[in-house]
Write a structure and sequence with these properties.
Number of domains: 3
Distance between the termini: 8 Å
Order of helices and strands: EHEEHEHHHHHHEHHHHEH
Strand content: 5-15%
Largest sheet: 6 strands, parallel
Helix content: 40-55%
Structural class: alpha/beta
């Protein structure tokens, strides 16, 4: 039966078990998996990203993993264009694209699109974050209130990520964010999205994160970072991500090993909290407990064949 242009997103915080569910689902609906992870695109950065092994893929095709062999920047625009081409190919093969990952911006960009920014930035995001660190978030929110009061009120004065992004847009394009957002474009405009959110109790999620960090260490995370440090410059984007930056601090004798582990666990938990906060604002995500896979399968199958 023809299922039209529909795409499944498996959404949730780090440590919730998205990959396992995506693979189980792919087996049931003839799915192929597109990774929505901003760090797993980099080759050789394996243990610290908890990258899925070939054996664990269970024969299901996976895309957008290990596609960058140098330190070039990968962003939402790259993801949007590449994931769209892959999705089209998957559908041409008569299969279902399943997007799985925790980079919330990538998942949202598929639906809302991305606006054509001017080339050559005048103000970097790093500079704006430095302003927040020195003058405070309320200062930058006040600046946003002056140029785009409606959007400032909508996001509130504590949403650092959106405030910084909004001012980055304004300074580099000279147009208020709310106005430029109306110019967004997505190649997925003819697609319908089936959004599956995975959730577990907070204490269980934190235990999963702690166990994962211990497993990464046992699997040779420190040696991996030593090797990568010898192979790539320290400004390589993955080195700024959780796990790699803390192990680098340890290798540079800035902190001891136990502190590094403790920081990785804490920063991972903080990241999971931010992910959940972001995802909870999305009203079209249908939430499930991972253990209730039959419910997930039933929901996805009904959604795929609805209106056919």
């Amino acid at each position: 039966m023809e299922i039209g242009k529909k795409i499944v997103q498996i959404i949730g915080p780090t440590g919730v078990g998205k990959s396992k569910i995506a693979i189980k689902l792919a087996k049931e609906i003839k799915g192929e998996i597109i990774s929505a992870d901003s760090i797993q695109v980099y080759k050789n950065f394996d243990i610290g990203t908890d990258k899925i092994s070939n054996n664990s893929m269970k024969g299901i095709p996976h895309f957008l993993i290990d596609i960058i062999t140098d330190c070039s920047q990968f962003n939402a625009s790259n993801f949007l264009n590449m994931s769209y081409e892959i999705s089209e190919d998957i559908i041409r093969r008569g299969n279902v694209p399943i997007v799985c990952g925790g980079t919330a911006l990538y998942l949202k960009t598929m639906i809302n699109g991305i606006f054509p920014e001017k080339k050559g930035k005048k103000v970097s995001r790093e500079h704006l974050n430095e302003i927040v660190n020195t003058k405070g978030l309320k200062y930058l929110w006040g600046e946003l209130s002056n140029v785009d009061p409606c959007y400032a009120k909508k996001i509130g004065e504590n949403d650092r990520i959106r405030i910084v992004r909004a001012m980055e847009i304004y300074y580099n394009n000279g147009i208020p964010p709310s106005k430029i957002f109306k110019q967004t474009q997505t190649p997925y405009k003819n697609y319908s999205f089936i959004r599956v959110g995975l959730t577990i109790q907070r204490n269980e999620l934190y235990k999963n994160i702690e166990h994962r960090v211990e497993r990464m260490v046992e699997n040779g995370f420190v040696n991996e970072v030593k090797y990568l440090k010898s192979k790539y410059p320290l400004n390589c984007p993955p080195f700024k991500s959780i796990g790699y930056k803390e192990i680098l601090m340890f290798l540079n004798n800035e902190i001891d090993f136990e502190t590094a582990k403790k920081l990785i666990k804490q920063h991972s938990k903080n990241f999971a909290k931010r992910q959940l906060s972001w995802f909870r604002q999305e009203k079209d995500i249908n939430w499930f407990i991972p253990e209730n896979f039959p419910d997930i399968e039933e929901f996805v199958k009904k959604s795929l064949w609805k209106d056919q």
